[in-house]
Amino acid sequence: MPTLINTTPRLLSWTEHPVTTESLDWAPLVIIDLAKFDQPGGKQELANELKDAVKLWGFWTVINTGISQEQLSRQLDIGYTFFKQPLAEKKKVSCDFSEGNYFGYREPYRLIGNSNIKENMEMLNIPKYTPHYESHPRHALVQAFKDEIEPFHRLVWTNVIRKLFVLFAIILELPEEYFVERHHYDKPSEDHLRYMIYHPRSAEEDAKIGGQWSAGHTDFGSMTLLFSQSVAALQIRTPSNEWKWVKHVPGGITCNAADTLSFLTKGYIKSTIHRVMRPPVDQVDYERLGLFYFVRPGDSVPMVPAPSPVLVREGYLSEDEAKLAEEQNADAVKGFEYVRARVKNVHNRNTRHVNDGRGTKEVFRVKNLEVPDFYV
Ligand SMILES: O=C(O)CCC(=O)C(=O)O
Ligand SMILES: [Fe+2]
C-alpha cells in the first residue's frame, strides 16, 4: 500500500508581545459590539453608536466578531512563517507596481525620503478566493494552508465587513445593501488579506527619519481592518489635528474608513489620516506582526456619491447632484481604475515620500477624484 506523506510545512508559532506600560496619549475610539448586530433593534443601535465615529474620526474598533482567537493565531503563525522564509521564496510572487498591482509580496526596498534608511516593513497581500482570482499565482506556503486561509478570508468579509457596510447604509438612510453590493466578496475587487511585519530599527537610524515608520496617509480603498495587536505604533490624526496612539483591544479589530468610501459619500465618511511610529521604549525591540484586510470598491463600481437623503439634508450633495450622479455613472472613474492608479503612484518609485523634494501639497488625481498624496 502506498504511504501517504504529510508534506504540509510546519508553522512557526507567533507569540503576542506584552503591552506597553507607558501611558501614551490614546485615541478615544468607539467600540462597536457586533454581537448586537442580529438582536432586535441592534443594527439601529449600532448605527447610532457608529455615526460620529465615521463622520468625525474615521476610526473605530469592533469586538465580538465571531472570529476565534484560535483562527486568528493560526493566521498570525502562517504570516510569521511566511516572513521567515528566504527572500528568494518570498519574491516568487511579487507585487507588480508598474501595473499598480498590490497582490503578492512587497519587499522593503524603498529609501525613506533622501535619507539612506530603508523601509522596515514587509507585506504579503492575498487576493480573494473567488473564480476571478483562481489563476492568480500564490506562494507555496499559502497554497499549503489554503484550507485555512480561504475560509478565513471570506469570514472576515461576512462577519465584519458586510455588517459595517449595512451600518453605513442605515446611517445614510440608503437601502441596507447599498454598500454591500458595491463591495461584494463574490464580485471582482482589489480586496486583500495582508500579513505584514515591521522590523525594529536602531535609535540612531530612527532618529534620521524622525521615528516615522510610515508617513501620514489615508488608505486607498474603502476600508481597512487591522486585527488589534499589542505593539503600539499606529497613530491617527484626530479631528483637532493631534496625533494620538491606537490602543490594543484584545480580540478586537481596529477599522478605518478610506478614500473610495469617502468618494462614495462625498466626504461624509471620513478617510482618516494615520501613520506608524517607532514604538514606546519597552516595545522597541519587538517585531511587529500585523494581520489586515484591505477592502477595495468593486472593480466596476462607479465612484459617484450615493443618493442619500442624509447627504442632501446635511448639505454634502444638492438634489440635482444626487440625480446627476446616477446619470453620470457611465463616465465616472471605476473602482479598479482608481485603486490601481493610486497604488502605482505611491509604490512604483524607489523613495518613500517625505523630504523627497515634492512638497507637502502634492495631490493625487484621477479625473475629478483628488486626494492629498501624503501628510507630514
Ligand atoms: O501597521 C499599521 O498599524 C498600519 C499600516 C497602514 O497604515 C497601512 O499599511 O496602510
Ligand atoms: Fe494605512
UniProtKB/TrEMBL annotation:
Residues 189-297 form the Fe2OG dioxygenase domain. Coiled coil: none annotated. SUPFAM superfamilies: Clavaminate synthase-like. InterPro entries: DIOX_N, IPNS-like_FE2OG_OXY, IPNS-like_sf, Iron_ascorbate_oxido_reductase, Oxoglu/Fe-dep_dioxygenase_dom. GO terms for molecular function: metal ion binding; oxidoreductase activity. Keywords: Iron, Metal-binding, Oxidoreductase. Belongs to the iron/ascorbate-dependent oxidoreductase family. This is Gibberellin 2-oxidase. The lineage of its organism: Eukaryota, Fungi, Dikarya, Basidiomycota, Agaricomycotina.
